[in-house]
Amino acid sequence: ILEKPRVHPVSKYMLFFFQVAADHCVWYGECGPSKQVPDKKYNCNYTGPPKPLEAEGHELLTELCPGLDYGDRAICCDVAQLRTLKGSLQLPLQFLSRCPACYFNLMTLFCELTCSPHQSQFMNTTIDTKGTTIDKNVVAVQYYIGQTFTDAMYNACKDVQAPSSNVKALSLLCGKDASQCNATNWIQYLFDINNGQTPFAIDPKFSDVPLSGFNPMNNYTFNCTEGLDDGSGPCSCQDCAAACGLDGMCVVMWLSYMSFLLVFFGIVIGAWCFRRRTIMSEYVNASYCERLGERFENAMREVFSSWGSFCVRYPLLVILGCIILVGLSSAGLVYMRITTDPVELWSSPSSQARREKDYFDSHFGPFFRTAQLIITTPVNHPEIYKPYFPGPDVPFNTILTKAILHEVLDLVPQTTFQNSHTQLDRIAEDEFFVFADYHMVFFFLQCTASLNDTTQLHDPCLGTYGGPVFPWLAMGGYDGTNYNNATALVITFPLNNYKDDIVKKGKAMAWEKEFIRFMKNYSHPNLTVSFSAERSIEDEIDRESDSDISTIILSYAIMFIYISLALGHIESCRRVLVDSKISLGIAGILIVLSSVSSSLGIFSYFGVPLTLIIIEVIPFLVLAVGVDNIFIVVQTYQRDERLPDEELHQQIGRILGDVAPSMFLSSFSETVAFFLGALSNMPAVRTFSMFAGLAVVIDFLLQISCFVSLLGLDAKRQECDDMACFQKGNQTKTDGCLFQFFKKVYAPFVLKEWVRPIVVAVFVGMLSFSIAVVNKVEVGLDQKLSMPDDSYVLDYFKNLSEYLHTGAPVYFVIEDGHNYSSLEGQNAVCGGVGCNNDSLVQQVYAASLLSNYTTIGFTPSSWLDDYFDWVKPRSTCCRVNNSTGLFCNASVVDPLCVPCRDMTAEGKMRPQGDDFMHFLPMFLSDNPNPKCGKGGHAAYASAVDLIDNNTHVGATYFMTYHTILKESPDFVDALKMARALARNISTTMDHNVFAYSVFYVFYEQYLTIIYDTALNLCLSLLAIFVVTTVLLGFELWSAVLVSCTIAMILVNMFGVMWLWDISLNAVSLVNLVMCCGISVEFCSHIVRAFTVSVKSTRVERAEEALAHMGSSVFSGITLTKFGGILILALSKSQIFQVFYFRMYLAIVLLGATHGLIFLPVLLSYLGPSANRAKVFAANKRFAGTEREPLLNY
């Protein structure tokens, strides 16, 4: 009998709480047995002063409470209590003692509770006065604990690992997963009487200030990074994240960066103090390589000059020829085929997962198309079930109440309880008691163990398909195996899939379409339903693409308008119509689009399918490359002065001879880089690289032909005043504002003596940071990103990870050729009596026991073991008609039906040889029923591939389930673990076995994505290096600088991906390959302008290159793409916002800053010396002309 404590004593038959004075004990010694935990005892109430500890307990006190000094060892516990404490804390200590600080803090919590001489300051007890006055039991206690102590203890223990389970220790000691455990609910669980260790209720109160007259226990705690006074060191990095210190890569890169700055600034200061200029000596005695480079440069100049002159003289011929070729190429679009099948997009036909999928599909048929409902309820009215037999009450969550289940049956008539409202309402009762109702099915779950439940209801437990419905598949949101606590029902509709039958597949897709339409319109106040069908993701991606068309069109429209207006160089308002180049800009845009359509058409002729990535990305890429070249040609012409006696076609030819090698350098580098990217095994990357490479080639050819002809026509128009062509205009050429800014302000500023070291320090710092975090970029693709913001599938994904307890099915497939008719062959596979301990079934079973590590969740279903049980002569399953020899189902009542095998010694053995194959087809055709639950048709009809007219067993599979998989790393780990297990089984059986699950084909790419990324980007950089070396006239060092700058851009892209939560996957890999190509545009023009400059110093040459090419790069590719990219931020598509807006913006910003800031500074320090042969040739070429003074800038 319990009662609140009072100041005055009352009758011993009443309860009371006793508020003790300060520094008194509240208990001492042990009394009667605990009612809740019978093998433990209550503590005895005692309100006197602390008592000296017996000598035999000194060592035990030191062991349990290290570092706690109680002076004369006068404490509030005896040896028996210390022994009980030690026994109760064995489990926590086994897991937490690996971290000394955590162990110390935990023991402080319990030692202060059990033995502190100051107990009365922070403990308030409830005592049971029933019995004598000398053995009153303390049956409950309030323990006032400081919040600071609580948080410190949790922080010291939260990272401690449990290696045997591959989880954090708190997952085993908190009553829930460590991710849901916190400082307070952990202590509450430790003191919960239901944990089986606490003999009486302990109610912790958390506060740092006095509460209800008690001073909370707030003893000193150790951080997990601290060592203890007894010499114990800090916790390991594995058990204490704070003890890991800085990330190793970050430390290395920080030290490297600091070392670089020290050396770099030392060299800069030394060079500034002691430099000597001997520039003119560079121009004496050109080397052979320099002469060879000059000849190559001159040859390209002459070829492009002649070609440019031809295009201007015969514009109609050139334009007509280009139109014909573009038309013929684009005509291939009539054969265009767009691939949206994710398997075709992301899995190579030669990949392991793809081969295994094809094998599975060809032998067992394609995996089911699945539609699924996850049903929850907003209603919160749980029920308490009171069993008829004595026992504790059982709570049932609202989703399992009868009213909700009736509503679920109304929604989906074919679910459970044999699809019957009547069956759900059945009860077994008499006039006094209800013996059984539907609760029994959920609580005792007889339906998973038998064909007829063992309650008084005797309901048939098989589903209508002939097999059982397992609770871990049909329910969700429960803990452990307490299915009565389920908060969700999961209903799955498997639909037959058809690989080649388009008509039947179309019917399945039509059913799914109607299913989705119905569920979208379904509404019920008591049910919340999330749903998905096989076609849902593809449908939502298509809808997303349609909704983003307007965003994409607006993005391109802004870029087109900018190009059309920015190409003009308007000198005055009255010459707007004369100087504007709207028509030329539109023509340039049409050339870009023509190159894209020609590339698509040519590959369509050869039957290469398109992907949405190609359609969305390649126009962006080619527009970037094409616009840059267009601006370079037009702006160079606008700044050029025609030489005396030089005609227009000669002038444009000369200009093309100057700039076309630079255009050829960038375009050819990109083309080779993209074509090398086509070596990738990933179909999406390979096809993108092929289409992009060809589109860039066609774009370059159209620019140096069709666009040059159009430029000549526009120039002739502009030279006629007021568009009347009555007199020739002799306007003086003037430089544009942007060029003037770059020439007079920007370039001189960036290349100042004090600015250049800062630029190097900043960019090398960015590089160091990116290298430090490159290994932290996540791998995978969150499928939620592929859905629109308003997609119903997002709710399904959320509930899938929140409620489901079972992952996808996994099949261990034994390829054909294994001999199941022999005893050795059977023992290598089966899991019953006489089977090998390392058989397939035994190994999968052993893996399921370590599900947290292996991700194999359950024991596999074994058709072979069930077949052996089915065919036993004692079984009523296998019977044949004695006269016809036909199979008799167990439900058939016919005296002619006799057991398949005789009750002899041989008959009791497993069937072998011909016997094995004789009865196996019967087993696979037999439906389970209450008289025979081992029929194999429901579970194994597709698991065994019978060949040679049912005379041999071909390929077979053994199915189990993965554990619940939520994120991309979970799926990748599951794939790796299943394959490792399959390899072990193959080695043991000496026969090929592979693991197959429906998601493997999508996640296999992530096993090699890092290698594929490194290979693709390295090949692209190698191609750029080789092409740049050759086309710059064998300027090896210049090619090195270009390649290094592009490599810096790529590494910095990984830094941005980490900062912006962009994962590495096929989509981002395509963007990185594109980044490699676009970066050439930002770098190659600047470097080539530097190599052909004839200025006297590297700084002057870098300044000239930045002034002349920088303005075109900035106004061309940078501003054009920047305006279009910003519009992508308006997209409703998450994948557009992440992988296109964020990555495109990063590509442009990093490319522009490296090309227009870092690269000129790098050239001013490390650029190659002037090519003396090119200097002599330039002086000779322009001697005696108006351009001679321009050599001196």
UniProtKB/TrEMBL annotation:
Q: Which InterPro entries match?
A: HMGCR/SNAP/NPC1-like_SSD (IPR053958), NPC1-like (IPR004765), NPC1_MLD (IPR053956), NPC1_N (IPR032190), SSD (IPR000731)
Name of a matching Pfam family:
NPC1_N
The way this protein sits in the membrane is described as:
Multi-pass membrane protein
Q: Which UniProt keywords apply?
A: Cholesterol metabolism, Disulfide bond, Glycoprotein, Lipid metabolism, Lipid transport, Membrane, Signal, Steroid metabolism, Sterol metabolism, Transmembrane, Transmembrane helix, Transport
Q: Name one GO molecular function term.
A: cholesterol binding
Looking at the UniProt entry, the stretches that span the membrane are 254-274, 314-336, 549-570, 582-606, 612-634, 691-713, 754-774, 1014-1032, 1039-1060, 1066-1084, 1105-1131, 1143-1166
A biological process (GO) of this protein is: cholesterol transport
- Tell me the compartments it is located in: Endomembrane system
Q: Which domain of life is it from?
A: Eukaryota
Tell me its family. Belongs to the patched family.
Q: Which PANTHER family match?
A: NPC INTRACELLULAR CHOLESTEROL TRANSPORTER 1
- This chain's protein is named Niemann-Pick disease, type C1
What organism is the protein native to? Answer: Neogobius melanostomus
